[in-house]
Every structure is written in structure tokens, then in C-alpha cells.
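Journal club side-thread
Mid-discussion, someone asked how the predicted structure for our own chain would compare to the paper's figures. Pasting it here so we can look after the session.
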Amino acid sequence: MSTQVVVTLPDDLYAQAQHWAALTHREVPQLLTEALALVLTPIGIPPADAPPVATLSDTEVLALAQVQIAPEQVHRLNQLLAQQVEETLTTQEQAELLALMQVYQQLWVRQSEALAEAVRRGLRAPLTP
């Protein structure tokens, strides 16, 4: 099911959308739909076995604040993003890209929570004065 929506975009934003659509071999409405789907995809709930950051030990909070996405996932994410610029991704590749973006986003949110908790506990200085 779909709902048609009429949106007025500033000229410069529409020009950027046209540029990205051309680079990715898509029509502007398709590109905007995909961009909104990516941006508005729910972050998701951490796994049931992932305790709230506030309940972690100081050591665990500091470790989580420094966690990184797996190098293989970074490599594949970069491959798919580059491929998306050069050609249209298959449906499977689009799904893989979206899944990797969600993994990255979930990790980033969890890492941000840990960083805030580390600052709150005085384990680490704030990033900005």
C-alpha cells in the first residue's frame, strides 16, 4: 500500500536530489522514497540480553564508548555505497545496504549512550568544553 504525498522542496534541495538521482540511476521520486525509508527506519531495540548502559560497570561503559563496527562490515558498507553511486543496486544489495546501515546506526546510538554515561560518571571528559 502507498500514500501519495505532495512536498514542496527548496530549489537547492531538489537540485541535490536530482544530482543524486542521476548518479544512482534513479528517478527523483524513487530516490526520495529510498532516502526517507533509510532515514526513518526505526533504530530498533537493543537485543534483550543488552542491559541498559546505566547498569554497566565503569569498565564496560568505557569499552562500549570505544566500540567499532567490524572491519568486514565497514568494507562491505563502503563497497555498496560506492556501487550505489556508479550503478543501481539489486534488491538484495539494497536490503544488505539497509541492514548494514541499521547495524551502524544501532552501534552508534549504543556508543553515544555509553559516552554520555562515561561523561556523567566522570570517567571521561566531555567532547566539547
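Post-session note: Residues 91-120 form the longest helix (30 residues).
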